[in-house]
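Researcher: Let's do a round of design. I'm pasting the structure tokens now; please hold your answer until I've finished.
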């Protein structure tokens, strides 16, 4: 039995698949503890794992630029205070192997000093969006330097400094591997639900043949948007659809005005809904997109701030499995943002939904992609790759 420590970034698309890999490791007889920012702790505890709170997560926040929605995140991900506390936790825990979220430069920069095998983990495409990854890391590094601290190494150095880079997507969905990146292992998506996301009874009868749509955007507070959710509800209100909207705990259902054809929930298990859905409206998070494809469901993607979401939106349109809508400007790079009035945005989304429902090829193309995902257990595959590095 081995002891693992996960230096974690609890972003909306990062923590659930991390918990899925941890579950697979525990099923194989190992123990996993997570260290991360305070917001991570209750989610990890609820999943049944030991959580170590990094109390220095925001100790140096006052030095970071105050005019960016990413200031808190950048402080946690890059500040020297966090780096020092992570190093102290590794020393105190003495794990056999350290797992590091690929979004945490403060931890990745120390990987070779930990004195034990290290694995970086990315929960979205790598080669398809390597330049965007570099841009995001450079942007975080820039905020660290604005705070008055020395620059950390670039992305390539950070990721290659670990013994493995595990990528929780399919290699055939990513772009071709590049020379010098032999440490990369694609294991397939890890589609894990957190404990708060439970199967939920819907108000429509089992014999109701009205098509079903799921609307779900980011669960990260950095991407909280009441307006985006309300636009989605308004756009789908007049279509022949039943709509389930989940807010991920960052928007209260009471903040929204649900039309008669919709139900708004904080959390719900997505698999039981998507497997019966005709449409998914999403922010383009990798997990949600892969879950929709797994069940052969087309999607409308309205990208949020994360650097991969505009890429995923464009990819779904390229594959003919969805429609990409104008979104927010992603952190660390230019996006596909376009100034639309509220009425224009609602009308555009309504038209996109109507087009997908009326065009069978969207579902056919999604079902074709589903074949590649059939039988893939990304969590188990990741666990095997991690075990291979144990002394």
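Researcher: That's everything. Go ahead.
Model: Designed sequence:
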């Amino acid at each position: 039995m081995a002891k693992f420590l996960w230096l974690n970034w609890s972003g909306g698309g990062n923590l659930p698949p991390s918990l899925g890999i941890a579950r697979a490791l525990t099923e194989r007889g190992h123990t996993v503890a997570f260290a991360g920012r305070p917001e991570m702790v209750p989610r990890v505890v609820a999943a049944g794992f030991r959580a170590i709170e990094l109390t220095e997560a925001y100790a140096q926040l006052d030095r970071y630029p105050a005019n960016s929605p990413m200031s808190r995140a950048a402080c946690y991900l890059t500040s020297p205070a966090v780096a020092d506390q992570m190093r102290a936790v590794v020393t105190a825990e003495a794990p056999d192997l350290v797992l590091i979220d690929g979004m945490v430069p403060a931890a990745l920069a120390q990987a070779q000093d930990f004195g034990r095998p290290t694995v970086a983990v990315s929960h979205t495409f790598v080669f398809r969006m390597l330049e965007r990854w570099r841009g995001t890391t450079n942007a975080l590094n820039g905020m660290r330097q604005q705070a008055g601290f020395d620059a950390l190494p670039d992305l390539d150095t950070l990721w290659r400094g670990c013994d493995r880079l595990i990528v929780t997507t399919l290699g055939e969905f990513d772009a071709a591997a590049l020379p010098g990146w032999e440490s990369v292992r694609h294991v397939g998506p890890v589609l894990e639900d957190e404990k708060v996301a439970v199967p939920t009874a819907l108000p429509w009868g089992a014999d109701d043949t009205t098509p079903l749509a799921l609307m779900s955007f980011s669960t990260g507070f950095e991407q909280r948007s009441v307006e985006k959710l309300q636009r989605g509800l308004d756009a789908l209100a007049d279509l022949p659809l039943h709509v389930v909207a989940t807010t991920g705990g960052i928007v209260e259902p009471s903040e929204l005005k649900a039309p008669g054809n919709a139900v708004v929930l904080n959390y719900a298990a997505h698999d039981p809904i998507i497997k019966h859905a005709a449409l998914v409206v999403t922010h383009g998070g990798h997990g949600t997109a892969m879950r929709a494809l797994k069940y052969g469901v087309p999607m409308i993607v309205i990208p949020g701030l994360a650097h991969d979401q505009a890429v995923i939106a464009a990819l779904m349109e390229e594959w003919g499995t969805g429609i990409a809508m104008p979104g927010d400007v992603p952190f660390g790079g230019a996006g596909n943002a376009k100034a639309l009035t509220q009425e224009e945005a609602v009308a555009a989304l309504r038209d996109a939904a109507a087009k997908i429902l009326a065009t069978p090829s969207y579902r056919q193309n999604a079902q074709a992609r589903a074949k590649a995902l059939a039988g893939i257990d990304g969590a188990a595959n990741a666990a095997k790759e991690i075990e291979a590095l144990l002394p």
